[in-house]
Amino acid sequence: MTTTRNLTPHGRIIEAARGKTSARAAAKAADISEGRWRQIVTGVQKAGNGITVPVNPRDTTLIAMATAVGADVEAVLRAAGYAPDEISSAMQEVDAQPSGIKDYSDDDLLKEVKRRITGRTSESDAHIAAANKQAGASPAARVIQSESQVIDPHPSGPTQPRERDPQRKRRGGS
Hints:
This protein is mainly alpha-helical. It has nine helices and four strands, in the order αααββααααααββ.
């Protein structure tokens, strides 16, 4: 943890809430780099040749940092010098955003996991299903087809499966 004498007022609140969590893990949770995390909590950025410049983070960044470590968002914004009306406006934006995984439906979470694993969306799956239906493919043929061919995740028209290139090496293989 960074020593408190080098921290900004908002940095003290954030770092106190961070506790034993590493700066790297906290920064990752806030979707910023560890270096940027340290710049924001200390309030300075090194510009080279021993020159430092002040850091003025956006409210959205402070909100992400505070949320990542469970700090009081309003207290962090106040400590950073935001005016009450700016805090109110920022908090309204926060309230309008989903605050975590619990705010998403199971269906939405499953769709997102499927999208990340396969690279396909529900829309591309609909194109694939329509093409298979139009082609009269049986359910078993569709499974075999999906296992042996790569489907373009962003078809511009009717889905045209591409054959795997047997000469192409797979990642991590030889």
